[in-house]
Amino acid sequence: MDVHPSRHLLSLVGLIAGAGCGTSAPDETAATGPASYDEIALAEAEDVDPQAAVVEVRLRARPVADGGNSEGMWGYEGVVPGPVIRGRRGDTLVVHFENGLPEATTIHWHGLRVPNDMDGVAVAQAPVPPGGSFTYRFELLDAGTFWYHPHHLSADQVERGLYAPLVVEDPAGEPAALGRPVLLVLSDAGPEAGRGTDAGVRNGREGPRLLVNGREQPTVAVARGARQRWRLINAARSRFFLLEVAGHALVRIGGDGGLLEAPAAPSDRLLLVPGERAEVALVLQGAVGDRVAVRAHHYHRGADRDDVGADGFGDPAPVDLMYLRLAEGGGGGPDLPGRLRNLEELTVPAAVVEQSIRIGERAQGFVINEQPGGTHPHLRARVGETQLFSVTNHTRFDHPFHLHGFFFQRVDPQTRRPAAPVEWKDTLNLPALSSALLAVRFDDRPGLWMFHCHILDHADLGLMGMIELTR
Ligand code: C2O
Ligand code: CU
Predict the structure, then answer these.
(1) Which of 128, 360, 381, 410 could form a disulfide with 367 if both were Cys (CB 3.0 to 4.6 A apart)?
(2) What is this structure's pTM?
(3) Is the beta carbon of 112 within 6 A of some atom in ligand 1?
(4) What pLDDT does residue 11 have?
(5) Within 13 Å and on the Cβ side, how many CA atoms surround 454?
(6) Which atom, in ligand 1's list, is nearest to the CA of 147?
């Protein structure tokens, strides 16, 4: 492992892991041939426990050591994004965390079904003070693409660079040869438009520099004709990524909680909202040497009109996020399977009473069920129940609704059954003035569990609440 030479913004903060991204099935590399992405490979957390079923890592949060453009940035192990933690379904994960920051922090394991006291939120643990430490320990119950970030002063700490992937693989439980796994963490950085202004905070502040694995507009070599399996994470504080790979269709095969039951219909664009993940299969076509742009289109997330182009007309032009340089491929490989996973559909009992979560806006911030965040009564649930949440957004903003600790399935209001392809979600965009019906099953992990908007400025402005789960 060596330090990438610092040539442009943030490049020093990325460490190159020589091995590139891990492969989860032995035949994957053979099926898809050589490809690179090494240019933007992330640091990997080292497993210090020799036992097969235990992943044990040391993780220190500290300021990024660079006097230049990463001034004021913080990172796990001093890198942005932080090191990838990898495990397999059923493993026990142990993280010896040390706080080398000048302020208190916690780690929240976004999307993982952890015990309540491992969730890293204020009701579950006292924040780890500067110089303090804490050991997180839990079982990796589900395969999928997850991430970790602070849940203390998170609007600021995430923006400073404290975010990193956690990938749980399950080679035995998924079809072989889904493609070469590539991990891409999207985020942004830099002085935000509207920093400190009320309108800026209410919109949700965005950094002007768009980052892929901590780099601005990287170019990576990719084998043409070989299927890629991108694992995408949106770790930005507020920014929505509406992605396009020029001239190529994207097939979503996974979401927040692992694979979908079947591949989704091919699409030109993929929207990834803060906190959300996607797995996408794509095959790059073209001649060796061609350069394919991965673009981020403007997405109007309902905020005030000042996020529209400076001239006030139309949407800002798309931004090139990174470039794929086509290299000689390994070609071929089997087709994407028509079925990816047997996924249990949540069945909602006919008599179930809907829990209503109404999101509104007032002069001072956001309200839930007409009351400012934190002052409304907790929603209640019992272990073993499947509940139906009716979430309604009465505001002019989109809100990525995130539930801690439990997955949900979006349910069709007519049939009360999950829409196809069925998938497990923990973060769902609720467009301005829209609603969604979510089925949630509460397994046996009692405690206080949060839900909130993953535009972290919105959560701070009151868009958060609690579910009190009891036995
Ligand atoms: Cu990733 Cu409470 O959040
Ligand atoms: Cu929001």
Answers:
(1) 360
(2) 0.90
(3) no
(4) 34
(5) 27
(6) 1
